[in-house]
Amino acid sequence: MTDQYKKLLTSLKFNNGQSIKYRTCLTPMVTYVAEKDGSIGDLALKFYGDRSDVAGLLITGAANVVQAGKAYERQINISDDKYISGLTRLAKVMKADGNKAVVQLHHGGKEAMWAQENFGHVESPSGIDFPAEAYTFPSDMYQPEELTETRILEIIAAFAAGAKRAMEAGFDGVEIHGANQYLLQSFFSAYTNRRTDKWGGSLEKRMRFPIEVVKAVKEATKERPDFIIGYRFSPEETLAGKVGYTMEDSLQLVDKIADVGVSYIHTSIFSHFDAKPKGYSQSFGELVKNKVGDRAKTIIVSGVHTADDAKEALDHADIIALGREALVEPQFTKKIAEGKPEEIKRSAKYEQDTNLLFTELGKDPAKFFEELDKV
Ligand SMILES: Cc1cc2nc3c(=O)[nH]c(=O)nc-3n(C[C@H](O)[C@H](O)[C@H](O)COP(=O)(O)O)c2cc1C
Q1: Domains of the chain by residue range
Q2: Minimum CA distance residue for ligand 1 atom 5
Q3: Ligand 1 in contact with 177 (CB < 6 A)?
Q4: Of 60, 147, 195, 351, which residue has the fewest beta carbons closer than 10 angstroms?
Q5: Which pLDDT band, with edges at 50, 70 and 90, does 363 fall under?
Q6: Residue 235 in contact with ligand 1 by CB distance below 6 A
């Protein structure tokens, strides 16, 4: 181990006693490697098995907790007990080499393309047909349907059931997906959540759904106090020119979630790990770290392509997440640990146009891997 990267390679202990051996993680990425129904087959086992050396903490791509929240064909499915056996095999390959493995729990909300195609509508806090630019994948095909209170409670219970399945499958924890415009974020956003009941309105009420999900997951996994629970969020939202929420709002959410008690808070940004919100002198990562204090660890992501990037990013969070870089360099952290950081392959192509990757490669894993091989 070189002294230069010592901190990166030093183990880190979460508040619940669980620890990771390196301060790096594989960020959640749907790479369309599950089988058509979302079960785990050879492709998923190969994709994650190949990446057991990439980081100390490995997080799966988003796994849908209900079919109505399924966004992508071939995303991992955790909505039924029948998936547990495959997930058990997945946990085993991800945990090889002493890593910790976590499943990202997901409901696609208004962005659930697969659900739209299969059920003719998507589940959303409010039944509003937003303009195309308010969607991650611009389209006018979505039919958002307002969730009833009964259904809201069912979805919360589905997150808890997903966490239980992850636990049964041998995973070390779960990450609750509260980012990237999916269902939890849609509840938090004043733009997409126009409800007037206890699930919408004031900031306090818009926080209710994400917080209830965290509480339910905690309750479902309480027999295992060392089970890691992470929460991922996007720090700001402006959709179709309208502010859904600000960094200040997010810091209040993060504060509440840290009070409920999680192992880590994961800030999702697509720009760069040292990016700052407008009007702030500190980075997104630093602001979150200051707010959370010693109540939870923090993860920052985006634009890490070299060992020096990773070292620098540690000024902004406790753990550094690897996204596109991990697709092209499965041995990222291992190469640093072995004193060969200069041998790390760089992903330049995927930086150029993530949307292209999603739309052109996303639906066809064979093509996706063919392209990956060319990088
Ligand atoms: C192919 C691909 C799939 C992704 N899927 C997810 C996902 O399932 N869940 C999630 O929270 N973020 C997802 N993201 C966002 C990444 O986790 C990450 O935040 C983003 O790629 C920025 O990090 P990077 O610059 O290291 O790639 C995805 C990104 C890519 C490129």
Answers
A1: 27-304
A2: 29
A3: yes
A4: 351
A5: very low
A6: no
283 lines ligand 1 (CB under 6 A): no
User: What are the tens digits of pLDDT across the range 274-322?
Assistant: 999 999 999 999 999 999 999 999 999 999 999 999 999 999 999 999 9
Tens of pLDDT, residues 179-231 = 999 999 999 999 999 999 999 999 999 999 999 999 999 999 999 999 999 99
3-state helix/strand/coil string of the chain: CCHHHCCCCCCEECCCCCEECCCEEECCCCCCCCCCCCCCCHHHHHHHHCCCCCCCEEEEEEEECCHHHCCCCCCEECCCHHHHHHHHHHHHHHCHHHCEEEEEEECCHHHCHHHHHHHCCEEECCCCCCCHHHCCCCCCCCCEEECCHHHHHHHHHHHHHHHHHHHHCCCCEEEEEECCCCHHHHHHCCCCCCCCCCCCCCHHHHHHHHHHHHHHHHHHCCCCCCCEEEEEECCCEEECCEEEECHHHHHHHHHHHHHHCCCEEEECCCCCCCCCCCCCCCCHHHHHHHHHHHHCEEEEECCCCCHHHHHHHCCCCCEEEECHHHHHCCCHHHHHHCCCHHHCCCCCHHHHCHHHHHHHHCCCHHHHHHHHHHC
Cα 195 versus chain centre, distance: 26
> What is the best residue among 24, 26, 30 to mutate for testing ligand 1's pocket, by most ligand atoms within 8 Å of CB?
30
C-alpha 84: how far from chain center: 20
Q: Is 4 left (phi over 0), alpha (psi -120 to 50) or beta?
A: alpha
Q: Regarding beta strands 144-146 and 122-124, do their DSSP bridges make them parallel or antiparallel, or are they unpaired?
A: parallel
Overall pTM surpassing 0.90 (yes/no): yes
Q: Is 268 in the pocket of ligand 1 (CB under 6 A)?
A: yes
Residue pointed to by tokens 């295992």? 224
CATH superfamily for 27-304 is Aldolase class I (3.20.20.70)
pLDDT (0 to 100) of residue 367: 56
Query: Ligand 1 test: best mutation among 25, 27, 74, most atoms within 8 Å of CB?
Result: 27
